[in-house]
Each structure stands twice: as structure tokens, then as C-alpha cells.
Amino acid sequence: MRPFIVVSAAALVLLTACGGASGGASSGSNGRAAVARAPGKQAGGAQAQNVRLAPAQAIVYTADLTMRSGDVTRAAGQAKSVVAAAGGYVGNENATENPGSRPSATITFKIPSARYQGVLDQLASSRIGTRVSLRQQADDVTQEVADVDSRVKSAKATLASFRKLLAKASDVDDIVQLEQEIAGREADLESLQARQKSLAAQTSYATVTLRLEGTTPTRREHHRSTGFSGAVSSGWHAFAVFVKGVAIVVGWVLPFLGLAVVIGLPAWWLWRRRRSSRSSTA
């Protein structure tokens, strides 16, 4: 029984390798060579026509758009509304608005690929602001999608075959070897499925990174109160400024006062001693 298991496993590995290598090409050629017969009318009767069906392309769209606006918050809100109306969503957002600096925001949008170009045109319109720069990129991953799909299908078939062999195995060594092989194949299949899922997400939704720049620095506004409370507030502010000024002056003079004390005390002591000596002599 054991030689049969080993030979069968080896045959499965070889068949899987050959199937995985040719699967992408065969599936692509089958898709390209798909023939549909459509009735065609000509003089003298009907004649069948061969129509080639091209495979659906898988494109990954990305764009980086920089806009300048006098109101970054308003522009960001309008951009989100445009994307939401198209069935998209915000993938990431980062906004900064510090006093003395120009406000800015960076928003990453996920937009349905079918509506990518129309939404991008709206985001780059004067409704949002003034366009500063725009960079677009389209990557054709049709062949990679077909290859991954083929390898996933082949990996599933191989796993099913190994599990059948495991069910028939009776030798302990064969069982251990088959279980190890199945574990490795399952890990490979999970990796392929993760890549398949990632490609599906990338081709279903385009990625647009919108950078918004403010036109003027943000200023901090100070509101002044009127009446008695305003007078109290102004008086307290003036007193605080005065105390702060006195503290600065004292802090500046203090080192010099210390130096004067260190030098003046010995001098004063000598002067008192000499005066006492003169008084006793007289």
C-alpha cells in the first residue's frame, strides 16, 4: 500500500505543476477563443458568424490629486459628498489646522472603478478648489488575475486528491507524510486566496489620494468682552502683564545683587573695623 501512496503523491505533484504552469495560458486562450454563433442574414439565406469574445480586463486605477482652497474644511466635505454619491468611501483621512500655518488635509478615497473617471473629474473641478497637480496610473493585471485564479483552482483540486489518498492510507509513515503535504498545500492555497482577494479589491475600487492645501494661514481670534466684566478682564490682564514684567526685571537684576553682596559685605566689614580702630586711638 505504501509504494502506491508514494507513487500517487508524486504523480499528483507533477500533474499539479504542469497544470499550474499551463492553467493561466489555457484559461486565457479559452476566454479569448470563446466563440458564439450569431445568426447573420445574407442574400440567399442565413449564415453563421463566429464572434470572438475578448476577456474582461482587470485594471488597477490610482490617482494623486492636489487642490488649493480658501476653506479646506468645506472643500473636504464637498469631496466626501461627491465620493459617497458614487458609492465610494473614505479609506484614510488626516487633517492639520495649526494657528500661523496653512491648513491642509489628505484624504484617501476608494471609488468604484466603473465611476472612477467621472468622480475624479468632479474632485478636480473648481467646485472643490483650484487644481495644483494631478497624477494618474492604470495597471493592467488581467494576466495576473487569470494566473492566480487558475492556480487557486489547481491547488483546490490537488488538496482534494491528497485527502482521498489520506483516506485510503493505512501505513503510519504514509499518513504522516500525506498530512505534512496537505498542510503545506493548504498554506499555499491560503496565500493564493489572499492574493486573489487583494486583486479583486484593487480592481473593484480605484484609489484616489486627495491633498487639500489652504490659501492663507489660520489666525487665532481674540474676542473682547464689554462692560464691567470686560473692564475686570482687561484690568486683570494688565496686572498679569505688570507682574510678569516685574518678575523679568527681578530675574535679570538678581545675579548682580548677589555679586554685589559677595563683594560689598567684606568691604563694609573692613570699613567698620578701621573706623572702630580710629575711634579707640583717638
Automatic annotation (TrEMBL):
Protein's recorded name: DUF4349 domain-containing protein
InterPro entries the UniProt entry points to: DUF4349
Segments passing through the bilayer: 249-271
Domain of life: Bacteria
Domain DUF4349: 57-268
Keywords noted in UniProt: Membrane, Signal, Transmembrane, Transmembrane helix
Annotated signal sequence range: 1-23
The keyword Transmembrane appears for this protein: yes
UniProt key word Transmembrane: yes
Species this protein is from: Actinoallomurus oryzae
